Every structure is written in C-alpha cells, then in structure tokens.
Amino acid sequence: PLSLCLSVSSSLSLPPMNPNDYITLPEPKLSAADQFYLPQVLVGLGTGIGGGSVVDGKLHRGANGFAAEFGHMIVSAGGIECPCGQRGCWERYASGTGLAHHAQAAAIDGQLGAILAEAGSVAAIRGEDVTDAALAGDPEAIEVIRTFAGWVAVGLVSLTNIFDPAAIVLS
What residues does 20 pair with on adjacent strands? Predict the structure, then answer.
C-alpha cells in the first residue's frame, strides 16, 4: 500500500496519503450538479477500519495528517483492548477482526457448533467462516452477523452526527 500511495501521490502531484484518503478525493470531471452527491465520508471495512472525509470540497487530513482514523473512535468505553492501546475502538467490533471476535465469543457460549467443528478451535474461527455460514442459512451465524451489523451501525451513526455527510461510502 505504501508504494501505491507514493506512486499515486507523485503522479498526481499530491502529498503522500493514507490509501483511504485517495478514494475520497473529488473527481474533477464531474459537473457542478454531480458534486452535491460526492462522497463526503468513506469507511473502509476490512481487517481494521480506515476512512477518509471531504469537508468543504477538500480532503480533511487534520492538523498532523492523521484525521479519519475512524476505526479508533471509541464506541464502548472500557471495551475490548485494541493494539493501539485504547479500549473500545470501533474496529474491535465492526471490522473483519471484530466479526471473528463476535463469532469466537458465540462459540465459547456454545453456539456455532458447525463452524467450530470445521475451524478446529475457537481461535481459528474467522469472519469469513461466519459470513459463509450465514449465507448458507445458519441461524446462529446470522445472529452473529446481526450483532456485527449493529456495531457497524453504531459507528456510522456517530460519523453521521459528526460530519452530517451527503453520503457515506462503504468499501
């Protein structure tokens, strides 16, 4: 990702940025009418949660270039410990890693027996395992996805309250 960021930034005469920041840049070919619908907040859900935001038509980078670290927004005071050193970061609940954590907790509580049997251990359960089982109709996996979706919604509502965006783009 770093080499891609440096390559894109040099070819477009932009400063090096987080990959999520590039996605939020306004497209210069859009008409004035289309610009109203420009994404103003991007949330990248993956192993963690990244983000970017456009404020007044410009990428908001913050005082030190670290704005939009949405994954480290606290959504549960005193919650799950994050590798960043905080507790309760959104990405601990609403990322791929968070989905795996919800599934592992459900397996410890005696649910997700088929997923646990296939994974071999609680620690080996991944978010993808839960997603596949939910798509196949497993009711316990669907419930874990519902819990996960609730945490995604908590963060999106907070971002809506902070930015009042015209649009939120999930990637």
Answer: none
